[in-house]
Amino acid sequence: MNPISNIWNHPKTSAAGLLIATVTIASVLSQQGISLGQAGTGTVVTLASALATALLGLLARDPGSTSTAGSTQKLGAWALIALLLPLPFMGGCSGATVAQDIVHWTPALQSAVATVDSTAALLMPADAPIFSAATVGFDAASNLLVAQSKAYLANPNATTLAQLQAQVVALQQNVNAALLSAAKIVDPASQQHALNAISAVGTIVNAMLALVESISSKAQVAQMAAQSTIKLAQVRPYLDGSQAARIVAGHYGEPLELARIQVAQAERNAAQAGL
């Protein structure tokens, strides 16, 4: 079959193939730590992948994109495959790239912790002490994680990685314990304020945890899981998925739908690892 005429006769299917190829190539480049420069808060490779994914999703939903129901289903299936390719904070990148990404999350972490510090004033007088007691360790633990992230970036070796693994798990456990405590607040408005503030910190810590997990061996991940006494599954009902997607999308400068997939996949990976 003449490839030129095939493209002419099936333009939308050909466009889908081109978009899938773009996402695939971008995934390979990301795995090799190739960024092709910065684009906003992300990279050119990440931007190209996100745009191709978004366009592919629109194409897959277009009722007129194919002539039969069967071919429409096939196009949707290919779109799903493209969406499930490795994503920015899901691992596969070089250690140096991941280390830099972890450090890039630290300003957002510090900002989220600062919001937690000011949230007690929004709660009912009887609820504020509960919230303050639950989050009292956030400042120290987040400062240690920021320092350890920068130490690993400056000197990425087994020792600094082990310290980073321990510190990110420690903060994650603080956040999980705080979520369980905040869930006991009776006043609905106070509880919502408390959970929103803690969940924002949790989103960032979980993103950093996913990055650390991606550069850790199976034995190291198992050790991290052993240190996690409060599992993600226990606090999942108190996490705001929409808020998490907005935070991730804003950080990477990507479509919200792509961020939702990243968050969901990170949670599945954490659950499978026993975290």
Low-confidence runs: 60-69, 71-87
Any idea what the radius of gyration is? 21 Å
What's the β-strand tally?
A: 2
Number of helices: 13
| Average pLDDT over all residues | 79
Largest sheet strand order: 1-2
Query: What is the domain tally?
Result: 2
Characterize the largest beta sheet: strand count, sense, and whether it forms a barrel: 2 strands, antiparallel
Following the backbone from N to C, one meets helices and strands in this order, namely: HHEEHHHHHHHHHHH
Report the end-to-end length measured between terminal Cα atoms: 52 Å
Fraction in beta strands: under 5%
Shape: globular
**Helix-residue proportion:** over 70%
Structural class: mainly alpha
Q: What this model shows, in words?
A:
The protein has 275 residues and is an all-alpha fold. It has two domains: 81 residues; 179 residues. It has 13 helices and two strands. Strands 1-2 form a two-stranded antiparallel ribbon. A hairpin with a 2-residue loop joins strand 1 and strand 2. Helix 8 runs antiparallel to helix 9 and helix 8 packs parallel to helix 10. The N and C termini lie far apart (52 Å). About 10% of the residues have low confidence.
